[in-house]
Amino acid sequence: MTVIQETIQRATAPPGPPCCDCGATVWLTGLPSSGKSTVARLLAARLREAGRRVEVLDGDEIRRFLSAGLGFSRQDRDANVRRIGLVAEVLSRNGVLVLVPVIAPYADSREAVRERHGASGTTYLEVHVATPVEVCGRRDVKGLYARQAAGELSGLTGIDDPYEVPDQPDLRLQAHRQTPGESADAVWDLLAERRLV
Can you list the alpha helix ranges (DSSP code H) found in the chain? Predict the structure, then answer.
């Protein structure tokens, strides 16, 4: 049986007891200030309370250390996503639930990460945090939208740099229509459905 066949078999297996020692990567993709990190932090706390090994790969921390020196060109954004994907796959392959609240604006970069996970038989779930750009602009957690509007910043994802909306994510969160806790609960339910909790 090939790795891909094993992955499909595991993904389509009937419900059973939780696979508590299984790792997985949950990639939360969406615009800046969409709520990705908030949902990831809430979910991580709940997973830790349940006794799961969990790591959150925060995009800002990764850029400071693992991807230091990369800019925001398409090529550099792709390299950043692939680096994060490598770390996530290694951790998840070794039994860690990895939450990745990273924009990952390009579909081909996200697909490369999915393929890396598939090649090792490791579960990869894509969650689109589908908060509209208008709401993200009002939230503006890091002041990016204000800086872009003032002409101090260019290349802001969703404004003057593209964000390719996932066609078929494993879950699409309307995070602007529910509380962060409800969004985290929805991701928990996805993990439960896949027997990961």
Answer: 3-11, 36-49, 59-64, 74-93, 107-119, 133-139, 144-149, 180-193
CA-nearest of 66, 115, 85, 81 to 25 is 85
Instruction: Name the burial class of residue 9, with classes exposed (0-12), middle (13-18) and buried (19+) by CB atoms within 10 angstroms of its CB.
Output: exposed
Closest CA to 103 of 171, 160, 158, 182: 158
Q: For residue 150, what are the contacts with CB-CB under 8 A and spacing of at least 6?
A: none
pTM (two decimals): 0.86
Distance separating alpha carbons of residues 192 and 109, to the nearest angstrom: 27
Residue 168: Cβ within 10 Å count: 7
pLDDT in tens, 141-195: 888 888 888 889 888 888 888 999 999 999 999 999 999 999 999 999 999 999 9
Within 13 Å and on the Cβ side, how many CA atoms surround 186?
19
Cα of first residue to Cα of last residue in the chain, in angstroms, is: 26
105-119: pLDDT as tens digits: 999 999 999 999 999
CA–CA distance, 188 with 192 (Å, rounded to integer): 6
